[in-house]
Amino acid sequence: MNIPANLKYTKDHEWVSIDGDVATVGITDFAQKELGDIVYVEVETLDQTLSKDEVFGTVEAVKTVSDLFLPLSGEIIEFNDNLESTPENVNSDPYGDGWMVKVKISDASEIDTLLSSEDYKALIGA
């Protein structure tokens, strides 16, 4: 299972890559494997400012729909439009082409609440 050491993680199985005051968010390799074949990603919160842990969208797999929780407070400034036509990128490349949103972070102190790769591995028993 792929759990890159340079990323941060949440208990809800999102990953976060931080570049200055912008965070890129997606779901982890573990999450996409648990969900199975992803057929649709819906994000209707573009240009909205949300609080940490608010639902920013949903991911739909063949058998289930799961909410996506924002790992850091901020404004959703970009959605990965490629997922509209190729949602399977979340399965094939969850940390690359399968990213979901970019967020302008409004409270940098929240970064300290995210899990390290080691903490996340312990959470999922990897």
Automatic annotation (TrEMBL):
**Which residue positions does N6-lipoyllysine occur at?**
63
Q: Which residues form the Lipoyl-binding domain?
A: 22-104
The UniProt keyword set, sorted, is: Lipoyl
Q: Which species does this protein come from?
A: Flavobacterium fragile
Nucleotidyltransferase as a keyword of this entry, yes or no, is no
Could you tell me which PROSITE patterns the record lists for this protein?
BIOTINYL_LIPOYL (PS50968), LIPOYL (PS00189)
Q: Could you give the subunit structure recorded for this chain?
A: The glycine cleavage system is composed of four proteins: P, T, L and H.
Q: Which family does it belong to?
A: Belongs to the GcvH family.
* Pfam families per the UniProt record, alphabetical: GCV_H (PF01597)
Record protein name field: Glycine cleavage system H protein
Matching entries from InterPro entries are given as: 2-oxoA_DH_lipoyl-BS, Biotin_lipoyl, GCV_H, GCV_H/Fam206, GCV_H_sub, Single_hybrid_motif
Query: Gene encoding this chain?
Result: gcvH
- What is the protein's known function? The glycine cleavage system catalyzes the degradation of glycine. The H protein shuttles the methylamine group of glycine from the P protein to the T protein.
- Coiled-coil region(s) at which residues? none
Q: Which PANTHER family match?
A: GLYCINE CLEAVAGE SYSTEM H PROTEIN (PTHR11715), GLYCINE CLEAVAGE SYSTEM H PROTEIN-RELATED (PTHR11715:SF3)
Q: How is the cofactor bound?
A: Binds 1 lipoyl cofactor covalently.
